[in-house]
Fold:
Amino acid sequence: MNNYSKLMKHKIELTSEEILGPINLKRTIQSGQTSESAWKNANGKYWDAELITDEYIKYEVFQSSKSNEKRLKIIVYSKEFSDELVKSIKSYLIQIFRLHDNLDLFYEKFKFDELSKTFNTCKGLRLMKASNLFESLICSICSQHASVKQWNSMVELIKINFGEKIKFEDGSVFYTFPTPEALAKASIDKLKYLCLTGYRANYIQKAAEKVFKGFIDLNELKKFKFEDAKEKLMELPGIGPKVANCFLLYGLGMTEAAPVDIWIHRIVSKLYFNDRKISKNEVEEFLRSRYKEWAGYAQLYLYDFIRSFKWPINLESIYIKQQ
DNA sequence: TCCCAGGGAGGAT
DNA sequence: ATCCTCCATGGG
Structure:
């Protein structure tokens, strides 16, 4: 008696008809965006699960060795298989990997800009859109003053300790992200000592409480003007300009947002201002006015680019890597 | 041992 | 407005 046989694999694909420009799956998933924690990698395939047509569906996404192709391969695990399911999975993936963002247009538009220095290294890197706004908000809070690796593990521990455990019939286990109510009622000590969130535990619990009690409606923020949404977010404890921008960009998908962290501050100062002293706020305004609706992408490319080097950077190495 | 990590809050200047 | 310092914790 094994019930593994109940779960069947179904292969589907997203091709250049549905993907505008290249996608580099690995680079995208590993780029530390606060839409969600990084998907797990099992022998070259990234997998996740999502509530689709009323139940949690597990799927694997991967590419062939040539990683900049306009193609995503997908394996869906389910008992039953229908055209509707295929359609739902596809449209879900198109949404979260933002496959309708035309990266070819982006590269063309800025091919003579300073930003083009990052294109070779980062080609195919895409913004990710959160599937769960509350999760993205907490990810953004956790990311403050912590490495990507560290905040990812905080979020995984939050899911394990406060989320719902889903066990698939192939033996793999998945934890959902907890509801605002669950984290609002969580003890600070558990958040701190079980989830290793440190001083952020207070912020997390308070922010969850504000969401749970309706002080702020994350979905409603989509209808706000950018500045208004940002201002509202910054009323929450632990949310300053950088974290707010992360949520606006990776959570709500407002691509005009430009989160400025220590790395962006450094590279923008160096590449655009000849290392002149410049405030974080000035950097944000600079990126937003220069790149407009592509500011989020510009920020992502600069961030991913500079993180592939060691600090301090000498410009020579950047030019060499461009060859 | 010291320094840093996708910062923010509170306070002093 | 700009400049401190403190905040927990893990990793180099």
About this structure: The longest strand of chain A covers residues 45-52. The mean pLDDT of chain A is 93. Residues 148-162 of chain A form the longest helix (15 residues).
